[in-house]
């Protein structure tokens, strides 16, 4: 999934013809995170995100994904318009569908927040999905 790709942990080897595209994407991600890394000014951040020999920036990518995953989810689902059909929300004790742009209404957390991601599959190891 997108979280694995961003974090550099995508195990999908798939179609050999797609290898070039995957390498292109990975190189572009290295370039983007390289620019983020070079823009770090705080010495603590520079220490945390030490450059590695292959310039993969795995720790920076992991932290970036953690900080931005909710925003990415919103961006990906902003035009979903109820097309997510799997029961993922618990409304009145039933397995309800996330019909509000693939989001569940949050009854227990922040008031009125409907941006709760109904599934956290990026935390399930890829080989188990």
Question: Can you describe this structure?
Answer:
- The chain is mainly alpha-helical and 129 residues long.
- It folds into two domains: 1-77, no CATH class; 80-122 and 125-129, no CATH class.
- It has four helices and two strands, in the order H-H-H-H-E-E.
- The protein has a two-stranded antiparallel ribbon with strand order 1-2.
- A hairpin with a 2-residue loop joins strand 1 and strand 2 (94-97).
- The chain is globular and about 50 Å long.
In terms of per-residue confidence, which ranges show pLDDT below 50 for 5 or more consecutive residues?
Answer: none
The biggest sheet amounts to: 2 strands, antiparallel
- The level of helicity is 40-55%
Morphology = globular
User: What count of domains describes the coordinates?
Assistant: 2
In what order do the strands lie side by side in the largest sheet? 1-2
How many strand segments?
2
Radius of gyration: 18 Å
Question: What would the average pLDDT be, to the nearest integer?
Answer: 73
N-to-C order of helices and strands: HHHHEE
Distance between the first and last residues' Cα: 10 Å
Strand content: 5-15%
* Tally of individual helices: 4
Output the structural class: mainly alpha
């Amino acid at each position: 999934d997108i979280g694995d790709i961003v974090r550099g942990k995508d195990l999908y080897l798939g179609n050999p013809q797609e290898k070039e595209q995957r390498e292109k994407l990975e190189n572009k991600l290295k370039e983007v995170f390289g620019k983020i890394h070079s823009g770090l000014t705080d010495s603590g951040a520079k220490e945390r995100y030490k450059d590695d020999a292959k310039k993969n920036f795995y720790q920076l990518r992991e932290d970036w994904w953690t900080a931005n995953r909710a925003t990415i989810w919103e961006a990906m689902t902003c035009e979903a318009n109820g097309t997510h059909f799997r029961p993922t929300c618990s409304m009145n004790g039933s397995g309800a569908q996330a019909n509000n742009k693939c989001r569940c209404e949050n009854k227990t957390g922040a008031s009125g927040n409907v941006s709760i991601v109904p599934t956290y599959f990026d935390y399930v190891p890829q080989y188990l999905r």
